[in-house]
TrEMBL record:
Its cofactor is heme. GO terms for molecular function: heme binding; iron ion binding; monooxygenase activity; oxidoreductase activity, acting on paired donors, with incorporation or reduction of molecular oxygen. It is found in: Membrane. PANTHER family: CYTOCHROME P450 98A9 (PTHR47944). It is a single-pass membrane protein. Coiled coil: none annotated. One of its GO terms (cellular component) is membrane. The keyword Iron applies. Keywords: Heme, Iron, Membrane, Metal-binding, Monooxygenase, Oxidoreductase, Transmembrane, Transmembrane helix. This is Uncharacterized protein. It comes from Glycine max (Soybean). Belongs to the cytochrome P450 family. InterPro entries: Cyt_P450 (IPR001128), Cyt_P450_E_grp-I (IPR002401), Cyt_P450_sf (IPR036396).
Amino acid sequence: MALLLIVPISLVTLWLGYTLYQRLRFKLPPGPRPWPVVGNLYDIKPVRFRCFAEWAQSYGPIISVWFGSTLNVIVSNSELAKEVLKEHDQQLADRHRSRSAAKFSRDGKDLIWADYGPHYVKVRKVCTLELFTPKRLESLRPIREDEVTTMVESVYNHCTTTGNLGKAILVRKHLGSVAFNNITRLAFGKRFVNSEGVMDEQGVEFKAIVENGLKLGASLAMAEHIPWLRWMFPLEEGAFAKHGARRDRLTRAIMTEHTEARKKSGGAKQHFVDALLTLQDKYDLSEDTIIGLLWDMITAGMDTTAISVEWAMAELIRNPRVQQKVQEELDRVIGLERVMTEADFSSLPYLQCVIKEAMRLHPPTPLMLPHRANANVKVGVPTREVP
Ligand code: HEM
């Protein structure tokens, strides 16, 4: 009997010893005391970035927080942010890919989940020199303005419909539609919804893929932090493979449509599918990377924009004085005879301040996308280590 106990006890002691050694080996930033196995998971309050801000008040601007057995270092002032994102950029720009992120991104063949290295540098170059150039963004401006005008019309129609007069309106629904149509037109060069608001077959499939992706990604969240407990939460290999195949099938069908349209017309359009397909040879982009990049834009650009505007609207409603000042500025600069365009932004300083303040109060990605260290990096004064 005693012999039977020796093996598990030795294993646990070894594991505890190794964990302790890891924690003492480095001069880690201070932080709340972690519990064995779960670390600080049970101390983290629901609005995570507010909880970290509270801890920063007690422990300083650089803190250690343990998600299970994974160390997270959080910096919360601009000097440290500059050190982390600019000075040590190359050592701190890898990604921690959860098992689902690794599946979705084919192990970082896209941009969001790519580690720092030749692939990342190449794909960032494609984004800065080709996709997000002022020229391309300007030529895509009609899409954005068209979608915003359509939204204003649909809000107007909704509010003036008999029975809706004086009733509350679900702003999120309208913002969600603009974000959806904007991003699908930008990335896929397609509007899946017709002028009557009816979604076509590809659109329905697209939406189902987005929803299924969210469901699959969320299902593993807890198990990710305690690696040795993962056997209890096995990855649904079949479901991920099916999801990946479905996503590729739809994207390939859209890519083929665009390739055929280009052959017929002899010219490429400005949206990202055409851009990436015509740049494929120049930058040696694999099909996985093109599909990954297109879906990166969808996942990164849809909810972020809708959530930002929804919060800005909520803050305006909560602050009627500010709302009135925005309206006065719009009436003075734009007047009542025409619709505002993106070119007007530079003449609307108060509106710009309102947007920045709304994003400061309610950042849609307050903790950014965590970066992972690929080397032992020293930051801050007094020096702390990020292993
Ligand atoms: C209010 C709107 C948005 C916010 C707040 C936001 C915020 C962020 C943040 C915090 C990151 C992580 C940066 C990092 O890891 O250092 C990120 C990455 C990214 N975002 Fe956005 N984003 C917004 C809109 C968009 C849109 C509209 C697109 C595309 C059309 C987009 C595409 C991307 C991509 C591709 C990345 C990965 C960049 C990389 O890993 O180097 N985002 N975004």
